[in-house]
Amino acid sequence: MIDIAKFKPKTVYVTYIAATPERVWEALTSSEFTKKYFWDLSIELDPKLGGAFALRMPDGTAAGPATAMLRPEAIAIIDSECADLCGTVETVSFIGDRQRLTITGAADRPIVVEAPNSLAVEAGQRVGLGIEPRTVRLLPEDRR
Fold this sequence. Notes:
With 144 residues, the chain is mainly β.
């Protein structure tokens, strides 16, 4: 996998897309879009935690392991006693009417969650994470 902190691209391209973030997100994770714009590659996924994923080449062969991708606002903080996925609040940062929480111990890397300020949480608190399956997007991992 590429160490993003050390990655220094030779050329940087910026693309402006006249669409809502939700529409862009949906397009980048839909098979119709990927076939049209990514060399006829097709995404197949079961949008749930641990769900199946395949990035199919035009000949039908599948490519490698995947990384689950979620938008921070798509993760809900729930009672840890009721959750399949739990972690510990590492940091809490307030951003306008929202707060950004960093949750550790629920995955192999920290999970960032955006929640309303009305949610009372503090660093060190054990929390459950609720994830709506349709919001999960899986991306192939770099196998270099």
